[in-house]
What does this fold into?
Amino acid sequence: MTVRTPAIDMLAKQVRTLMILGRHQQVTARPSLIVTGPAGAGKTTALLQVGRACHLAHTRRQDEAGVAAGGQVPVAYVLVPPAASAKTLALEFARFLGVPVTARMSQAAVVNSVCHTYAQVGVRLVLIDEIHRLNPRTTTGAQSADLIKDLTERVGATFVYAGIDVTGTALFSGVRGAQLAARASLVDCDPFPARDGEHEPFKDLVQALENALDLRYHRAGSLVRLTPYLHERTAGRIGSLARLIKQAAITALINGTERITKTTLDGVRLDHLAEQRYRPRTRTKPGSR
It folds into this structure.
């Protein structure tokens, strides 16, 4: 299950707006979005959820003849490989749609095939994940950044990027960074605060995850009562929270208790980042100093 977080809702609204705006923009690259935030904040989940919603909306709009004919791919998803060169990145775009390429093909030939195929199958939304891997300060990174800029101008689609703390990387530096910053809006996927004014976003997240549990003897509301502990344990990161509850649920199924308690949660070993930040309080014994 996917929890509808504020970041997903905001991203969905902005993507829909930009896709409508981009339909009538033919001269320059369409405006884009960048999803940024720390590791484990749910960026990839938000990206894929919005892509799924776009795909389903497109499918619903098609008539029966269009569905029967098939061949339409409204959303593309590309993962930036480590130390990507312009050609290896172009090959990733080709691989997603199974565009036939050979090792002897030049980069220009691969890009032309990609642009032709993406237009042919009607790609309207391109999702590019792990964008922080690009470093325009290096030769290969600069060429890869130029390739993405070229694709945004040649492919009639809205581009959405996701990466870890993008604003703190080299992506926004120099001439290329200025071009990206001038065209892209930012959507922050920050850790959930325990309280935001009168609202308790993290508590709502815990409630949604607990409602999805299907454990026979789990007491409803027991996780919600542990919200302060869960926030401290995960630093408000949705990735760590989801992993904690999933592993605790699996443990409860294996040992036959089919309920999650604080003891169960304490027994789960989380990711290194969460474990580093979590410092359990120790009770002071009476009479000790």
User: Anything to note?
Assistant: The CA atoms of residues 234 and 240 lie 5 Å apart. The two ends are 48 Å apart (CA to CA). The beta strands are 32-37, 75-79, 125-129, 158-164, 184-188. The chain has a mean pLDDT of 84.
